[in-house]
């Protein structure tokens, strides 16, 4: 029995305590209240992109994003967030917001006007973001046609490994690869 049902039964007069019918009615009513509360909480979660699950489909359809249900919620959310953040006037800040939605970390975007190049540097996460191709597609949809784009990534170097007191042998003992631990943030 749920806590709600226990409270409902406790508030009844003493002479209902032995009534099986009353207990069943209160249990049914309490279960319905619990069910409605759970459904409301789930619906509330769908109203935010960062917590949506089954509701992601509606965001994707509204933004004209292909619905690929086989992708993880994280990847689907990053597509929606990027599209949402990509609305408005084109700027380095717009590209930065879009890239941060995909990478989950800090991104530095600069525009080199003389060469017509936008530089996107991932500094808050190590290695190449798992859904970099989706990010490239999203940026290609908003970047001006006369601009080129370059991506650069931050990696955990061997010198960083030595400075931390770790060795390749220590990394091997974890059962994960060097790249998994240090360039994907799985440590």
In brief:
It is built from nine helices and three strands; from the N terminus they run H-H-H-H-H-E-E-H-E-H-H-H.
In words, what does this structure look like?
The chain has three domains: 3-46; 56-154, no CATH class; 155-187, no CATH class. Helix content is 52%, strand content 12%. The chain has nine helices and three strands. It has a three-stranded mixed beta sheet with strand order 1-2-3, with helices on one face. α1 packs across α2 (20-46), α4 runs antiparallel to α5 and α5 (92-103) runs antiparallel to α6. The chain is elongated and about 85 Å long.
Q: Which keywords apply here?
A:
187 residues; alpha+beta; 3 domains; 3-stranded mixed β-sheet; 9 helices; elongated
Summarize model confidence as the mean pLDDT: 85
What is the general shape? elongated
In the sheet with the most strands, the strands line up as 1-2-3
Q: Which radius of gyration do the C-alpha atoms yield?
A: 26 Å
């Amino acid at each position: 029995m749920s806590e709600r049902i226990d409270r409902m039964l406790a508030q009844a007069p003493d002479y209902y305590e032995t009534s099986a019918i009353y207990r069943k009615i209160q249990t049914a009513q309490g279960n319905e209240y619990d069910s409605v509360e759970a459904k409301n909480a789930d619906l509330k979660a769908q109203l935010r992109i960062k917590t949506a699950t089954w509701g992601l489909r509606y965001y994707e359809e509204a933004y004209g994003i292909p619905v690929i249900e086989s992708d993880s919620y994280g990847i689907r959310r990053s597509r929606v967030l990027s599209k949402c953040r990509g609305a408005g006037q084109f700027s380095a800040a717009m590209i930065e917001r879009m890239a941060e939605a995909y990478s989950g970390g800090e991104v530095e975007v600069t525009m080199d006007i003389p060469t017509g190049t936008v530089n996107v540097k991932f500094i808050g996460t190590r290695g190449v973001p798992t859904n970099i191709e989706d990010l490239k597609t999203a940026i290609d949809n908003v970047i001006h046609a006369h601009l080129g784009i370059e991506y650069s990534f931050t990696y955990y170097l061997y010198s960083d490994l030595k400075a931390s007191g770790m060795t390749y042998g220590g990394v091997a003992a974890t059962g994960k690869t060097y790249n998994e631990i240090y360039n994907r943030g799985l440590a």
